Amino acid sequence: MRAERMRHDTHAGGAIGSLTPPSLTLQQGLWLLAAAGVTLAPHASYLPWWIIAACASLLGWRAWLLWQRRLPPHRVLLLLLTLACGVAVRQEYGHFFGKDPGVALLALLLCLKLLEIRRSRDVRAAVLLCFFLQMAVFFEDQSPLIALAALSGTWLAVVTLLALADANAAHRAQMRTGALLLAQGLPFMLMLFLLFPRVQGPLWGLPADATSARSGLSDTMSPGSISDLSVSPDIAFRVEFSGSPPEPSARYWRGPVFTRFDGRTWRAERPIEASTPFYTPSGRRFDYRITLEPHDQRWLLALDFPGAGAGAVRGDGAGAGPIRFTNFAQALLPRPLQSRSRFELSAWPGTATGLQETAATLTAALALPDGFNPRSRELARQLAAGAGSDAVILDRVVSYLSESRLTYTLKPPLLGRDAVDEFLFETRRGFCEHFASAFTVLLRGAGVPARVVAGYQGGEVNPIDGNLVVRQSDAHAWAEVWLGGRGWVRVDPTALAAPQRIEAGLAAALPEGEALPLMMRQDLGWLRNLRHRWEALANAWDQRVLGYNPERQREFLASLGFGKVDWPQLVALMSGVGLILIGGLMAWASWQRRLQDPLERSWLVFCKRLARAGHPRAPWEGPQDYGRRLALALPRQADELLRITASYARLRYGAGANRADIRALNRQIRNFELQ
Amino acid sequence: MPDRHADRLLEAASRVILGKEHELRLALACLIARGHLLVEDVPGVGKTTLAHVFARLLGLQFQRVQFTSDLLPADIVGVSIFDRETGSFRFHPGPLFAQLILADEINRATPKTQSALLEAMEERQITADGRTLALPSPFFVIATQNPANQIGTFPLPESQLDRFLMRIHLGYPARAAERALLMGEDRRRLLERQQPVISIDELRALQRAGQDVIVADALIDYVQALLAATRTDVSLAAGLSPRAGLALIAAARAWALIDGRDHVLPEDVQAVFPHVAGHRLHLAGDGRNVSPAALLRLLQSVALH
């Protein structure tokens, strides 16, 4: 067995020569493979499958070669493989520029480099590639898990370098040293994080990020559009109230307002914008801080109703800018939201809106397309007959809907041309958009101005950090009715069929046996708990680490007593703190050195003194040789120099040194003065 | 004073072999460390004389074996011959049964004969006709070797090179030394006049004293760092073995003793290192021996703390 393997070695060695062992030891190779594996693993989430497969098989090949103690494959084969990888990446992406093809190519090159390793320089190159790829993973994802993976990769890469420097050291010692090195880098990392001049916006604001698809509400609504969204457990936004949050039934987060109806689809009209609200906020005020996930739309999803009072609006992140208010009581961003942003807002849920509504708005809120939903319009006429006021009509519509016992479901049947008719009279099963749409059509048919509002309703308080988390599954549609003297009044028709939806959320409101996404299940308590913990951690990470922007930096520096700081001052501050840190580390190192034996210490003092005088000891030079060289260079003090070096040599390498001898040498060295 | 013996020996030897004090000192260190010596050089630079000198000055039984390609193991170990008078086989010891053996041009012999010699060097005994016979003590082999690229040679395999404690090169003498050599008396006659400087017992005492030279922990650290450096150097095919480490310390001890010290300094290790490690290290590429310059670089790459 052994002989056979050796024979194969000779064969595989080719031009390299016979029976030369591979230059990489098993231990070094394993560390390097681990570093490469951990570095590449997080990239697997977005790279094309064939690149992941290619990397995995190349790593596997390398591991097998290492295990079998075989030599790396021939250079020509590697060259061909590299060319093939390049062509394949070009085929996949169509070009070499940009981060995705770049990262894909680097990942493949790292795996190929591992196969090419013949000497320590190759290992260093591979480790450098690892470091770069660990950074590149943040182009794609900046979650705490990714940061943890990158940190582990960095640690493994450092340990690989340590294993390379000393192939015979113990694993544990090298792992400790690697961790210690990273720990020593920690203060510098913190210093750079806190003080390095921040730029507004995401650091990796590359074009591809801006156009990537994101989930969320859209500016049209047709049957099924919100129920599709409702199966997604993705977080839409997080809210941190400065006091207690409002009741669940008052948590309506306003998105698009739909006024135009074509018989099947509701569309948002272009609103009128202004810098102040179209209403006067009144009633109880709630202050909160909202962190929006990017949704590529302008709406702020503010809690009804946002106001421009003291400290009412302040945003940071890429969407920052003056907030606009619309005649539909919305708050809008100056431009579509492309990155996670945070805003400080206030809400006055008790505000009356639209008290002086324009005729154009009211007319638009009555329009219905001709020839659609005839049965509903007939029903509306019957309900309106003989009613004295709009309020009475509203009451009749509400009682009609609550008495007709419609079913609230996440999986409503498909609807045809006259969607409202089919929902009300045939299928009788629907989700919130069906309810809101049918309700609004009935009111309009009865001559009462009404519109559909979409947004989010409810949200779940994370018991770990107390933040309110609103998910895509909380997406909702409700209606608003305009009544003279009261303005726009919110009516939630879904509550008529399923009041639990408003009080306790979607999961509680759905009929028994309806399948829910795993994460929304109420019965898996431990899973929910785990998710709460994870989301609290991710939120803290988003707020404290990723959300550390120029403004936060200013706040932080102000809290340290640096009022207004510009770039040069920041750089100076950084240099100062850096020097302090370096000084601290050096002090620590010298304290460590103090723990060495006293003989060594006084010898170092002696060598240092002579080095300053221009006669440094070469690192490999023994004490006797050094003494002789010094005696030649400084003939006047030759005797003394030879005496000191000889007694050091004797104490260090002779039959054990006693304290008196060391003290005597110390004295000699102290008394020695260069002439 | 044992070290005075060493001084006297070296002084007498350098009267015969001119201008080669360092090499003579290395050869003596090899002898004190109970190792065997390999002298590698072109013919005519005094390899044979070196062996002769030590044999004369130490009063050792001397045998010279000229290695040729038709030399058989029995020619050096000895042979059993049937004795008519006693009616039985009698063992006639070969030239290996001497205290100092000059194995001249060892790389001219076939591997079979080479290995017979090298086995005897390692075991310090030989087995012939089922009987094990101890070789004399002290037993010191000085083998000479012409550079391997000459025609008709069998280079010694790596594992056998390891049996030699040191390998030295004599090289051409310096100009002044060569002049003195050319003008002076015939070396052979000079050699014949040499009387033993120390007795065999005194030599044994020297060898014992060499084993008592102190090796401090700090020195072991240094030797280990050197060994590790040879093992991590990717230009080398393989690093030094633990046996090579032991050889390095033994040689450094003898070197320190000749220098008149009771403890080994890093300088001693550095002095013997090129000669102890030189024939044990091979380049990764073509398997050639490491050059003296590369050995010096290796020494200088290991810091002394």
Quick structural overview:
Chain A has 675 residues and is α+β, with helices and mostly antiparallel strands.
* Oligomeric assembly: heterodimer
Structural class of chain B: alpha/beta
Biggest β-sheet: strands ordered side by side in the sheet of chain B? 2-5-8-1-9
**Portion in helices of chain A:** 40-55%
Backbone CA Rg of chain B: 20 Å
Number of helices of chain B: 13
Mean pLDDT of chain B: 86
Please render the helix and strand layout as text:
The complex is a heterodimer of chains A (675) and B (305).
Chain A: H1 2-13, H2 26-40, H3 49-67, H4 75-93, H5 99-116, H6 120-136, H7 144-165, H8 171-195, H9 207-211, E1 220-221, H10 225-229, E2 235-241, E3 252-261, E4 266-268, E5 273-274, E6 286-292, E7 314-316, E8 324-326, E9 331-332, E10 341-347, H11 359-364, H12 374-384, H13 390-403, E11 407-408, H14 419-427, E12 429-430, H15 432-445, E13 450-457, E14 460-461, E15 468-471, E16 475-483, E17 487-491, H16 493-497, H17 499-504, H18 506-509, H19 525-546, H20 550-559, H21 567-594, H22 598-612, H23 623-633, H24 638-653, H25 659-671
Parallel strand pairs in A: 11-12
Antiparallel strand pairs in A: 1-4, 2-6, 2-15, 3-4, 3-13, 5-8, 6-10, 7-10, 8-9, 13-16, 14-15, 16-17
Helix pairs in contact in A: 2-3, 2-5, 2-6, 2-7, 3-5, 4-5, 5-6, 6-7, 7-8, 8-21, 12-15, 14-15, 22-25, 23-24, 24-25
Chain B: H1 2-16, H2 21-32, E1 37-40, H3 47-58, E2 62-66, H4 73-77, E3 78-83, E4 88-93, E5 100-104, H5 111-123, E6 125-128, E7 131-134, E8 140-145, H6 158-161, E9 166-168, H7 175-183, H8 187-193, H9 200-212, H10 217-232, H11 242-258, H12 266-277, H13 292-300
Parallel strand pairs in B: 1-8, 1-9, 2-5, 5-8
Antiparallel strand pairs in B: 3-4, 6-7
